[in-house]
What we know:
Blueprint: E1 4-8, H1 12-23, E2 28-32, H2 35-45, E3 49-53, H3 61-69, E4 79-84, H4 88-96, E5 101-105, H5 109-134, H6 141-149, E6 157-161, H7 165-179, E7 182-186, H8 189-198, E8 203-207, H9 215-224, E9 232-237, H10 242-251, E10 255-258, H11 263-295, E11 303-304, H12 305-322, E12 326-333, H13 336-343, H14 345-362, E13 368-373, E14 376-382, H15 386-401, E15 417-423, H16 430-446, E16 452-454
Parallel strand pairs: 1-2, 1-3, 3-4, 4-5, 6-7, 6-8, 8-9, 9-10, 11-13, 15-16
Antiparallel strand pairs: 12-14, 12-15, 13-14
Helix pairs in contact: 2-3, 4-11, 5-10, 5-11, 13-14, 14-15
Amino acid sequence: xPGRVMIVEDVATNRLILRSRLTQSYYxxxxxxxxxxxxxxxxxxxxxxxxxxxxxxxxxxxxxxRRLKSDPKTLHIPVVMLTALDKLDDRVKGLEAxxxxxxxxxxxxxxxxxxxxxxxxxxMLVDELTLRGQSGHDYDDKEMLDIARATTFKGSDxxxxxxxxxxxxxxxxxxxxxxxxxxxxxxxxxxxxxxxEFMPFDAIIVGTxxxxxxxxxxxxxxxxxxxxxxxxxxxxxxxxxxxxATQALDLGFNDYIASPVDMVELIARTRCSLRRKHFADKLRxxxxxxxxxxxxxxxxxxxxxxxxNNHLDTLIERSxxxxxxxxxxxxxxDHFKRINDQYGHTAGxxxxxxxxTRLQTNVREMDLVARMxxxxxxxxxxxxxxxxxxxxAERVRSSIEAPLFDVPEIDGSRITVxxxxxxLTSDESASDLINRxxxxxxxxxxDGRNRVSIAAAA
Length: 458
């Protein structure tokens, strides 16, 4: 998984030490000696994570972070601020600038490497989601910024799992006050699993004092279940227990914090984890919307021509492998041009929507309904026989004819449909089958419309 790390540090010795640690774990390292140099290099080198010193001459780390997080090309790159041990104000200021994490100097090797690995993994996930979304839709700079700015932690649902009731009460009060979130409590593994069955938590904080179970096992179970695997997870562990911290991050925990818990640090780390989680959620939503848009007709909600043609090939292969029959039904609304010409395109759109609804209602759930263009539709029907296709086709025809369409502009005019269908033969291609069904449709049109015709044998 190792990726590319940019080190932004004005002290050459510190850069050398960090480079040595990272290259030993096979990370590719890019160095910048100043904030100005980092901002110049970031677009050319496209790092997966940036380790950013706070105190530098010229532009300090806070300003560099603000600029990175306001640029749609770099806002999704995780930034870890490197701060002095006793400067709590630096942590808060860094997070306000958009930093994803912070490490206090001097830091342990395990803390450095585990956090770099965890954040790099998260960044690669965001890259993949963005790439999938762009396969059907190019995000512009404004959209990426809008997604980031809409990412928030207010109103998030959180779960604290710990048997330490005093600590739990303090955690709950601090989180609710600082993040305006909802917090549920579970003292045992069983209680946690019960709550996880019914609530889609955004973040889960797990303490080591857990009744009836292993905290690491709970974290592993959260990651293994589809309903909970996107939740941000944080582990509270004993001070200096870095072996457990490393194991936790390897199992999928997003972060950890050592006891005694610094509430400012806990809130900061929780805020960062929630921000990343919600950002990824919004990318997934955009990706799903893009995928739906790519395969459906926006007016009728049926599949579009491209998807139907591609999927028909798959269904034909499956039909032949299983020995079952498959049919294609072509439909065309009668005199649709007259509707558009006489009543306008708004009325025509209303007719198309109502037609699609009636069509989908009267075919089987397994049948694929697609708008092929204009007023022409196709239904692909797997696992059928001649008698069943004829029955469904007639049911569709009669459902279109009556009752009258509820479209005010056409004022009670009767809508009818002409239908033609064909059943797949042993050596027939998808295009051949569609052409035969089309010929049957033309037969219905020629013979007076508002009827069903079967295609001649191939």
